[in-house]
């Protein structure tokens, strides 16, 4: 698990650690934080048998949920509670049993009330499996 650093990125890490600890669904997915800083989050997880669809491939809902979690952590790193307005995902390749997947969320735009993020879901070989775009509403509620 990530140990928070000092300064703004340390606050971002502390927020992400706290949010993930309070998120039983993300824990069920097995999501682990690789890196967090202002406007950025990367998570990883291993594809388990209970994450597969009827074709033996990673279920699209699992991929979307993992991306949604990375999006949530990234958009809350600035310390204001942010919630999803819209989210879309394009599936390009499929994940397979045993794959170790990386979800990276990068902030593209940060305004007073709205922020936007692009995410990449890749496997352990660097193959791009999906792209996710999320837009968040930034409330006035402070997280720290």
What would you note in describing this structure?
It comes from Hymenobacter setariae. Keywords: Hydrolase. This protein has 144 residues and is α+β, with helices and mostly antiparallel strands. It has a single domain, classed as Thiol Ester Dehydrase, Chain A (Roll). 26% of the residues lie in helices and 42% in strands. The chain contains three helices and six strands. A six-stranded antiparallel beta sheet has the order 1-2-4-5-6-3. The radius of gyration is 15 Å and the shape is globular. The two termini are 20 Å apart. The mean pLDDT is 95.
Structure summarized in a few sentences:
The chain has helices at 7-21, 24-29, 60-75, and strands at 32-37, 40-46, 80-91, 100-110, 114-122, 128-142. With 144 residues, the chain is an alpha+beta fold.
Question: Layout of helices and strands, plus pairs?
Answer:
Layout: H1 7-21, H2 24-29, E1 32-37, E2 40-46, H3 60-75, E3 80-91, E4 100-110, E5 114-122, E6 128-142
Antiparallel strand pairs: 1-2, 2-4, 3-6, 4-5, 5-6
Keywords: Hydrolase
Protein name: Hotdog fold thioesterase
Organism: Hymenobacter setariae
CATH architecture: Roll
Q: What count of helical segments does DSSP give? A: 3
Number of structural domains? 1
Structural class determined from secondary elements: alpha+beta
Q: Segments where pLDDT lies below 50 for 5+ residues?
A: none
CATH fold field value: Thiol Ester Dehydrase, Chain A
Mean pLDDT across every amino acid position: 95
Distance from N terminus to C terminus (CA atoms, Å) equals 20 Å
Q: Beta-strand level of the residues, as a percent range? A: 35-45%
Radius of gyration: 15 Å
Q: What's the name of the CATH homologous superfamily?
A: Hotdog Thioesterase
Number of strands: 6
Which H/E pattern describes the elements?
A: HHEEHEEEE
GO molecular function, one term: acyl-CoA hydrolase activity
Keywords: Hydrolase
Protein name: Hotdog fold thioesterase
Domain Thioesterase: 55-129
